[in-house]
Write a structure and sequence with these properties.
- This protein has one domain: Rossmann fold (3-Layer(aba) Sandwich).
- The mean pLDDT is about 95.
- The chain has a 7-stranded parallel β-sheet, with helices on both faces.
- The relative contact order is 0.15.
- α1 runs parallel beside α2, α1 packs across α8 and α4 packs parallel to α6.
- About 45% of the residues lie in helices and about 15% in strands.
- It is an alpha/beta fold.
- It is built from 8 helices and 7 strands; from the N terminus they run βαβαβαβαβααβααβ.
Length: about 250
């Protein structure tokens, strides 16, 4: 794959200190983008990613801030825009997931999941769009749970489904400005989100997946790279499922 698919582009990725967000940041940087690495807490992890990017392939900027806090969002988007002048790519990736049955979900947890996974997309996108021009891209990282639901994450599933409604509406509204808006819906990806899975639980899930393996963060990053690049010029309002065939619809 070409190393210059995003040459000269400026990309802001939320929740980029680990997992899927980290893989997207690295992939974009390897392909020529200047990346904004948003994170909430882990200075060490975020700095480690930026150091790796600088050593291997490019440059970027650390953007500490809570995506569920509108004031934080204003500050880190401004910091990035002051440095880059414009923003070509936004990836709304930040999210939280707690493995709870509906009966065990507390109001506080519901509010946290909704504000972090869904409201944040509004806050960040609202601040970023003024810095976008024709040809810019917005990518949402949703989930297979947006389609199939979950017996142990109704709050998470609700936010990921809501994200897709928001994405489709934005795609229609921003088409006149030639800003493409799409989403990816990962299946079971081998990240911290399944860190509490036992060996047997992982194997059970692998057995359920037609391709017989868990997804890797790079599987998601590769599709995001396509959606962010000039190779994707006639797709908007779509969700690409990346789940190894676990859920086909």
């Amino acid at each position: 794959m070409s190393k210059i698919m995003l040459e000269g582009k400026k990309a802001l990725i939320t929740g980029a200190s680990r997992g899927i967000g980290k893989a997207i940041a690295l992939s974009f940087a390897e392909n020529g983008a200047y990346v904004g690495i948003n994170y909430k807490k882990s200075d060490k992890k975020a700095q480690g990613i930026l150091n790796l990017i600088k050593k291997k392939c490019g440059d970027g900027l650390l953007l500490k801030g809570d995506v569920s806090n509108p004031d934080d969002v204003k500050k880190f988007v401004k910091k990035f825009a002051d440095k880059t002048k414009n923003i070509d790519i936004l990836v709304n990736n930040a999210g939280v997931y707690y493995r709870n049955s509906f009966e065990k979900i507390k109001q506080k947890t519901w509010d946290e999941v909704v504000s972090t996974n869904l409201s944040s997309c509004f806050y960040v996108t609202k601040e970023v769009i003024p810095f976008m021009k024709s040809g810019s891209r917005i990518i949402f990282v949703s989930s297979q749970m947006a389609f199939k639901g979950s017996p142990h994450g109704s709050d998470y599933a609700a936010t990921k489904a809501g994200m897709l409604g928001f994405m489709r509406s934005l795609a229609l509204e921003l088409a006149a400005k030639k800003i493409l808006v799409n989403a990816v819906a990962p299946g079971t990806i081998d990240t911290d989100i399944i860190k509490d899975y036992t060996k047997d639980m992982k194997q059970k899930r692998i057995n359920e997946i037609p391709l017989k393996r868990l997804g890797k963060p790079e599987d998601i990053a590769n599709v995001c790279l396509f959606l962010a690049s000039d190779m994707c010029s006639y797709i908007t309002g779509e969700t690409i499922n990346i789940n190894g065939g676990l859920y086909i619809h």
